[in-house]
Amino acid sequence: MRYNILFISLFFLAFSSCKKDEKEGCTDQSALNYTSYAVKDDGSCSYIILGVWNANSRIVNGIETISNFIAYQVTINPNGTFLVETYDNTSLYTDIEGTYTISNGSNLLMQNTYQNDYDGLGWFTNNNWTSYECSSITSTSATMTMTSSNWGTPSGVSSLVISLSK
Predict the structure, then answer these.
(1) pLDDT at position 165, please?
(2) What tens digit of pLDDT does each residue of 78-130 get?
(3) CA-closest candidate to residue 107, choices 138, 76, 82
(4) Is the pLDDT of residue 67 over 80?
(5) Is beta strand 40-41 parallel, antiparallel or unpaired with respect to 24-25?
(6) Eight-class DSSP state of 79
(7) In sequence order, what are the beta bridge partners of 72?
(8) Is 16 left (phi over 0), alpha (psi -120 to 50) or beta?
(9) Taking the domains of the chain in order of start, what are their residue ranges?
(10) What confidence tens digit (pLDDT) does each residue in 6-60 have?
């Protein structure tokens, strides 16, 4: 009987000591920082946000507004510049160009260099929008969501969430 208890104890000890440590990291193979040894995803995956993105959803102050646009496109360039191009249902085109910086991995600050609007009669400069601080970016290789609760101008916008895809 004593041998059986010793065998059971050694068997339990052997298998419990062989338990793998749950290494945390990024488990998405399409992410820039994929960790091949990670067993548990820790939410740290980061993706390339460069490229041309088309808006699927645009929520302003809790109200979905994407239906106001025929086209809404954001281009983020590798040289630190961006271009936002919109065409709304009233035939108004808007081009917003500027520079961006990213800090803390998910904080995006877009600083407007200029905004040009087309009203059907011609292009004119519009200084409505000066900066946009995106307090959170979440993305995969094919989708990106930009969330802001700090709109840079007194435009009446307190929150903006834009969902985009490539």
Answers:
(1) 92
(2) 898 999 999 999 889 999 898 888 776 667 778 888 888 888 888 888 776 66
(3) 138
(4) yes
(5) parallel
(6) T
(7) 86
(8) alpha
(9) 51-165
(10) 333 333 334 444 445 678 988 877 777 888 999 888 877 777 788 999 999 999 8
Find the length of the chain.
166
Backbone angles phi, psi at 38, to 5 degrees: -70, 135
Give me 68's structure tokens.
Answer: 């106001």
Distance CA 163, CA 158 (A): 17
Smallest Cα–Cα separation from 100: which of 137, 155, 46, 139? 137
110's enclosing H/E stretch is strand 107-118
Question: Topology of domain 51-165, per CATH?
Answer: Lipocalin (2.40.128)
Which helix (H) or strand (E) is 75 found in, with range? Answer: strand 69-76
In the 8-state DSSP scheme, what is residue 157?
Answer: -
